[in-house]
Amino acid sequence: MTPSTPASPRLSSRLLPLAAALLAAACTTTPLPPSPLPGTPGTPGQPPRPGMPAPPPEPPSLGWFSKIKVPDGQQPVLQLAARGVQVFRCEQRNGNWGWWFRLPEAELVDAAGAVVGRHGADFSFEHTDGSRLLGKVMASDAAPRDDNLRWLLMSTRSFGNGAFTGITYVQRVNTTGGMPPLNCEARQANQLLRVNFTADFVFYRPR
């Protein structure tokens, strides 16, 4: 058995830096690729790029006994957010003074944040592409909070060609604000009151 020969001092000095480099490499963790930044177009759950069609919305979650469920045979095709005011006028009715509803004045905003229409008198909806709707309230539900506007179901007639063509029903849901004080005074007769509100409108067509 041949005895092992000790390494020369010169060889050891060359091997030590190499061993240290290999040990450091073994202990190094490879970094993970960065996560997508919030709001990056195309990321799941983020709004589409301007000009890209939004995916069809999901119908709102409603209770078993909700009065604003859309009749069978309808499907949601568009959802827009409203931001604006509800306009009331101080009037005397049945001997009592109160703030009575006149009309809404609101912008309609798509998922990308672009203003694409307006919501106004007679529960009307006007799109920037020229199509429009006239609505009629069919039913309502109380909002989860008493100081928010009621949720509505409206039947509609459509006019013109565009995003609102063929829309037959609209729901107003997810409301915030919009409610006036309970009473006004005689000295405020015929004064107008504008109360800020937001809501989501879900638009339906027949399947």
Account of the protein in words:
The chain has one helix spanning 9-27, and strands spanning 74-93, 96-109, 115-120, 124-127, 132-141, 151-159, 169-177, 192-206. With 207 residues, it is mainly beta. It has a domain at 79-206. It has an eight-stranded antiparallel barrel with strand order 1-2-3-4-5-6-7-8. It is globular.
Low-pLDDT stretches are: 1-46
Number of strands: 8
Cα distance spanning the termini = 91 Å
Overall helicity: under 10%
Global structural class: mainly beta
Residue-averaged pLDDT, rounded? 82
Name the quaternary structure.
single chain
Strand order of the largest sheet: 1-2-3-4-5-6-7-8
| H/E element sequence | HEEEEEEEE
Helical stretch tally: 1
The percent range for strand residues is 35-45%
Biggest pleated-sheet summary: 8 strands, antiparallel, barrel
- Give the overall shape: globular
Radius of gyration: 32 Å
Question: What topology emerges from the helices and strands here?
Answer:
Elements: H1 9-27, E1 74-93, E2 96-109, E3 115-120, E4 124-127, E5 132-141, E6 151-159, E7 169-177, E8 192-206
Structural key phrases:
207 residues; mainly beta; eight-stranded antiparallel β-barrel; 1 helix; 9% helix; globular; disordered N terminus
Quick recap:
The chain is built from one helix and eight strands. The protein has a domain at 79-206. An eight-stranded antiparallel beta barrel has the order 1-2-3-4-5-6-7-8.
